Amino acid sequence: MSVIPFDDRDGSLWYDGKLMPWRDAKTHVLTHGLHYASCVFEGQRLYNGRIYKLEEHTRRLFKSAEILGMKIPYTEDEINRANYEAAEAQGIQDGYVRPVVFRGSEMMAVSAQTTKIHVAIAVWQWPSYFDPKEKLKGIRLDISDWKRPAPDTAPTQAKAAGLYMICTMSKHAAEAKGYHDAMMFDYRGYVAEATGANIFFVKDGSLHTPTPDCFLNGITRQSVMALARSRQIPVVERHIKPDELTGFSECFLTGSAAEVTPVAEIGPHRFTPGQISETLMNDYAADVRAPVSSVKLAAE
Hints:
Elements: E1 12-15, E2 18-21, H1 32-36, E3 39-41, E4 44-47, E5 50-51, H2 54-67, H3 76-90, E6 95-103, E7 117-124, H4 132-135, E8 139-148, H5 165-176, E9 181-186, E10 191-194, E11 198-203, E12 206-210, H6 219-230, E13 235-238, E14 250-255, E15 259-266, E16 269-270, H7 275-288
Parallel strand pairs: 8-9, 8-15, 12-13
Antiparallel strand pairs: 1-2, 1-7, 3-6, 4-5, 4-6, 6-7, 9-10, 11-12, 11-14, 14-15, 15-16
């Protein structure tokens, strides 16, 4: 299957306050965000013309930038509207939305206090992160050699580009062995998450999920927990030890890209996607496509 490079596409994207032709969105090779990872971003999904949980994503984008010491030169409302401007410019009703904030090229050193803060938003067509046919039978996860860092060693509550370096390495290693993704432990040895998604387990009718104290408390994660509670499914947030994996009957991942994806295998551990996984997968699919007549933001 041929892949269209992301720098060579038709249409427009939003860059520093205005729409511009996609191919004209250039950034210099000596940009601080490239060399020193001074970059934060969001991953959002557009369903039927509505960006799911847009306000929550934008709020997190601003918080991530604040953690890294970057002040976004726009208001949250301006960024919310810009997301829709970018989507409408591409004529996309169902797709992926990527806002990104990064330091520019005015200074090339660890200290870069006077660099310009750039903001860009791109929208493109993107189907389900995992093949829909794979979902109900469950995907296969390897166990990563890398661990999520301690909160006093990295800005773990920011959706920061630098934190994804070990995710890419872990996913590449898993794919090379025939897996779809990898599960990561945290610095203490507890179960943490997959490379780009949170993780849930089922035991005796209850959901168990790791406490997000050194990784992101995902927006999809929070949505799925609310959906579970609305069905009277107990949700337990706690530290989960590796030897507990054998005691869980079901497992699934959550994320804007992954949505709700059942898991059949994590290394030597096996799970059977069942009623709770399927129910929450379907409930989430209905939730993201629910009509919202009163709060939809539209570009003016």
